[in-house]
Amino acid sequence: MIKALSYYGPFAMEWYFCVLFCFLGLYGALMMKSSFRRLASLVLMFSSMLPALIICGKFTEDMHTTQAMAVSLIFLQVLITATGLAVIRKTIPLKLFRNIKQKENEKEN
Amino acid sequence: MIASLFVFTAVLIFATGVLVTGRLAFTVLFLSLTGVGLSVLFAVLGAWYAAAAELVLGAGLIPYLFHRVMIRLPKEVQEEKRDWVFPFQKKANRQQLPVSLKILPLSFLIFALISWFFIPVFFRSFSSFLVKLQSPEPFLNLLWETKKPDFLVFLIAVAALIFLMLADREETEAFSNRRNSATPETEKNTAEDNKTHTDKILPEEVQPVRTAVIQPEKTQPVMETENSTEKKQTNAVPETGSENENISGGKTRKPSKAQEKHSQDANGTHPERKNRRFKSRKYRGTKKWKNENGTKDEGGNGK
Question: pTM of the entire structure?
Answer without folding.
Answer: 0.42
